[in-house]
């Protein structure tokens, strides 16, 4: 079953990963240029409609 993208909500005593990432790193810059909706649309038909939710498709294709 295709999982939903997790909501990004801050927690009081838990720092967000985005606070530690170098936003000038080449992989971060590349990930901003990728059309993630395209991958969602292309791969979503391959997922079951029942069962446990999957990890987001973005994790599978590399980011």
TrEMBL record:
InterPro entries: Transposase_InsH_N. Pfam families: DUF772. Residues 17-61 form the Transposase InsH N-terminal domain. This is IS5 family transposase.
């Amino acid at each position: 079953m295709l999982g939903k993208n997790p909501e990004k909500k801050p927690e009081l005593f838990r720092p967000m990963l985005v606070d530690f990432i170098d936003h000038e790193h080449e992989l971060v810059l590349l990930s901003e240029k990728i059309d993630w909706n395209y991958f969602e649309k292309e791969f979503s038909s391959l997922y079951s409609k029942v069962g446990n939710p999957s990890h987001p498709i973005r994790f599978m294709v590399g980011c």
